[in-house]
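Internal tracking record. Fields below are filled automatically when a chain is submitted to the structure queue. Please do not edit lines marked as system-generated. If the sequence contains nonstandard residues, flag them in the REMARKS field before resubmitting.
Queue: standard
Priority: normal
Entity type: single polypeptide chain
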Amino acid sequence: MKRASFILVGLLVLTVLIPVSGLARQKTDLIFLSNGDRVTGEIKQLDRGILQVKTDNIGTLNIEWEDVDSLNSVYQFRVESAFGQKYFGALFLHRDGTMEVIQSGRAETLHYQLVVAITPLEASFWQRLDGSISIGFSYTKANSLAQMNSDLNIRYRTPLRQLVLDASNIATSQSNEATQKREDISLTYNRLFPGRWFLTTGAGAQGNDELGLDLRLNYSAGAGLNLIRSNHNEMVSAAGLSVNREWSKNNNGGYNLEAFLSLEHSVFRYDYPKTDITAQVTVYPNLTTWGRVRSEIDISFSREIVKDLTLVFTFYDSFDNQPLGANAEKNDYGLVTSLGWTF
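SYSTEM-GENERATED OUTPUT FOLLOWS
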């Protein structure tokens, strides 16, 4: 199987994401800000501390949740708390900080500081879709070293499900040297439950010349827990089992059963300029070849330059204490810089 198939897999995934149009509604939601201003429009979502409101005259506004004094909407929403509870109904946020979510005459009450997500129940396909794409390139004349990197992340969420597509590629070329590539694509499906728990399953493909890996196909399944979720901080852990099939140029590898344990922590600030720091660590103890351990570390720092355009710094480290290639390295690590766009 050639690595070009990575791109084909990504295209096939995108073809199934067919947009579904949502019905437009009147922009009658009222939002009162702590500075005394009033905004009339349509609440699109609250996510990562930003309340997005679409208006008729001044476009779509991004309002920091801490700046909202009160609001009300008679339309139906899904509201999520920091503890994982989910509420459904119309919204009434009072000036004393209490929010009522009312459905069929029954009101659920929580403090606004515990509210971490608001999504319209009639949200369209595009409202449920968000992500980022980044591209970087560097060249050094002294040793004719060129490097190009790209990264794609797409997330689609419904009240009970989440679908995540990740794809990354780093290609390094130098005169009189073979091009070195590091490629990774994965599709993850999460089934969400009341509270902080969720089930996760995923499939993916990897290649890494530095580690002597031509191709690894894998499938994983397990359970996850939202350890922390607020408007500025998220921490998620997951554990389970993974089955993979490996190939290298000089070694057919074979099938492996691995356990996996991952931890991801994100910190984000939205007072200008927007800043987002994410660190993810995943460890794979091999249950087929006892003593073999792999790990993946990714740390990214993004800073907004202008609206939705970011400067991204990413550190990565791939480790395998028993790589397939006879002369392969055990570690592949690097620091890349790129320009990104969020949507």
